Structures are given as structure tokens and as C-alpha cells.
Amino acid sequence: ELKVEQNPLFLSMQEGKNYTIYCNYSTTSDRLYWYRQDPGKSLESLFVLLSNGAVKQEGRLMASLDTKARLSTLHITAAVHDLSATYFCAVYFQGGSEKLVFGKGTKLTVNP
Amino acid sequence: NAGVMQNPRHLVRRRGQEARLRCSPMKGHSHVYWYRQLPEEGLKFMVYLQKENIIDESGMPKERFSAEFPKEGPSILRIQQVVRGDSAAYFCASSPNRRSNTEAFFGQGTRLTVV
């Protein structure tokens, strides 16, 4: 059974600071997704990572994937208040069927 | 090109009633996935369907829950005799094919409240 663990689950940071969210998973996969969710809203797709060593950047967010270590990171650079949200990683699981297995999410609060 | 459409956005049911949640996938998408999100938690897979076929229902509770994706019309997630523990946000996602390397597109969700 595929398990996906994110940490930290809660993150409070000051504007302008940097931080990294980690996503570990337990079974081989060739696809990993990062999503953002604002309270009461749906999921906004941020990144799709498809290969070992993949790195993608959008604004102040950068995601990377190490399939050998089964680890993905979401790095936040010079945080701003607008980044406050919950961030989920989701791993594509193909055993017997196909589905996304989500981490519990990291609730990020960026304080002025 | 409209995205994944879910309705209703909010649904209130009394205990014992039935809830029907609808999901229209993106145009050209024939694969639909349903997920449930309890408050303060991540999304949990429920069921994966293609047109007229249930591919994987391993995440569906054994009783009261059913899903279908008919040849015509939206996918339906049906919850019979709802209980308070069914209160959650239910999200639908669609993708164009089995091995698509693009992301699954999520709908806005249906927030079910059982009173």
C-alpha cells in the first residue's frame, strides 16, 4: 500500500523567509503532483513532476523530485502573505488501478 | 473549454436521506475519479470509473455508497441513508486517458453537510 507523508503539517513563517516542505512516499511511482488549496476551495495544480531529478519553478515556488529517495520537496523563496494556503503532494499509484494518493497537507501561514 | 463541473456545490441532507453528487468531466475526458476530503485532512481516493465501467472502487465504503459513469451524462456518486460522518467535501477529477502524463483536473467539489 502506498503511503505518502508530508512534513511539516503546519508551518508558520515570516514574510521574506525561505522554507521547504517535504513529501516522502513508500512505493515506486513515476509521477508526483503538488497542489494548493485555499480554505473552502478546490485544488489548484502547481506542478507535475515526471522523472527523477525533475525540477520545476513558478514564481516563489520550486518543486523537485528524487525518485530513488522517493522524496519530493516544495521550496518557498522569500515568502509573501499570498502564499498562505494548504499544500498537498499527491503520488500517482498504479498498482492494480490508477489513482492519486495524497499526503495530509501542509498548512502554511505567512505572517507579515 | 469548461473545466470539471460538479454540482451541487453545497448540499445539506438530513440523516437517513439520500445524497446525489454529479460530476461532468472535461470535454474529451473519459476517466473520472472521486475523492473525499474530511475537514483538515487530505483527499482520500474513493473510486475510479471509465464510461460504463468501474475500474477501481477500493476506496468506497462497503455499504450505502455507489458510483456510476453512464454512456451519456455525468458521473454520479450516490450516498444512501446519509449519516453525520458522511459530511465532507467530495471532489471529482477527470483525465483524458489511462496513461496521460498531464495532471488530473479537479472540480470545485461538493460540500455535503448532514444534519
Description:
The complex is a heterodimer of chains A (112) and B (115). By secondary structure, chain A is mostly beta strands. Chain A contains no helices and 11 strands. The mean pLDDT of chain A is 92. By secondary structure, chain B is mainly β. Chain B is built from no helices and 11 strands. Chain B starts with a strand and ends with a strand. Chain A binds chain B through residues 31, 33, 35, 40-43, 45, 48, 50, 88, 90, 96-105, and chain B through 33, 35, 41-45, 48, 55-56, 58-59, 91, 93, 98, 101-109, 111.
Query: What structural category arises from helix and sheet content of chain A?
Result: mainly beta
Major sheet size, sense and barrel closure of chain B: 7 strands, mixed
State the share of residues found in helices of chain B, binned by percent: under 10%
Strand-residue proportion of chain B? over 45%
Helix and strand pattern of chain B: EEEEEEEEEEE
Largest sheet of chain A: 6 strands, mixed
Which stretches of chain A are low in confidence, meaning pLDDT under 50 for 5 or more residues running? none
Beginning-to-end CA distance, first to last residue of chain B: 36 Å
Strand % of chain A is: over 45%
The overall pLDDT of chain A, averaged over residues, is 92
Question: What is the radius of gyration of chain A?
Answer: 14 Å
Could you give a quick summary of the protein structure above?
Chain A has 112 residues and is an all-beta fold.
